[in-house]
Amino acid sequence: MRRLAERGHRRIAVATADRDVNSDAEFLRGYQEAVAGVGAEPLVIRLPDSRDNGDQLGERLLAMPERPTAVVLAQETLALGLYRRLRAHGVEPGRDLAVIGFRENPVCEHLTPALTCFRVSLEDYGRRLGEIVLERLSASPPSPTHEVWPMTLVSKESDPAPSREWRAGSRKQWNPEIVEW
């Protein structure tokens, strides 16, 4: 969020699945804290967990009377449908809308513009999960585990400063509470 705020973004959306999974809840909690920390306007977009949800995200963003200038994706593969849907309406991702994906994913490596995202070591993550399982099998009762994994921003081309054309004509007052669309 700090990177987007430093580039001038004040209305930053997050797109997440509409399921109750702990990682999604943690992602959303982190988003809410980060948006509050940079004084940006929050906007939560919940999507069904389907292969077409990137297209649905694009439609929702295009239908908004006051569009965000940036969107952070809880699932980086949302970018595939999002890019396609925006372009179908003459909107260019990485120019008219800044997009940041959750993690580096080979499925997204051929997107243009290249998707800014985060790098996390899946090998280390898998190894640690195996250790936790073994610890839980040997402990009685098993102790709860809460860990936050370090991630490194992989700066690419999809998150420039806000575009005036994207939000043109949309100037309404906003409520500082989280808005779900």
Automatic annotation (TrEMBL):
Q: Where is this region: Disordered?
A: 145-181
The UniProt record lists the keyword Transmembrane helix:
no
Descriptive protein name: Transcriptional regulator LacI family
> Where are stretches of biased composition, namely Basic and acidic residues?
156-168
An example of a GO molecular function for this protein is: transcription cis-regulatory region binding
Q: Which residues form the Transcriptional regulator LacI/GalR-like sensor domain?
A: 2-158
Question: What InterPro entries does the annotation carry?
Answer: LacI/GalR-like_sensor, Peripla_BP_I
A Pfam family the protein falls into? Peripla_BP_3
Gene3D superfamilies from the UniProt entry: 3.40.50.2300
- Organism of this sequence: Amycolatopsis methanolica 239
Please provide the record's keywords in A-Z order: DNA-binding, Transcription, Transcription regulation
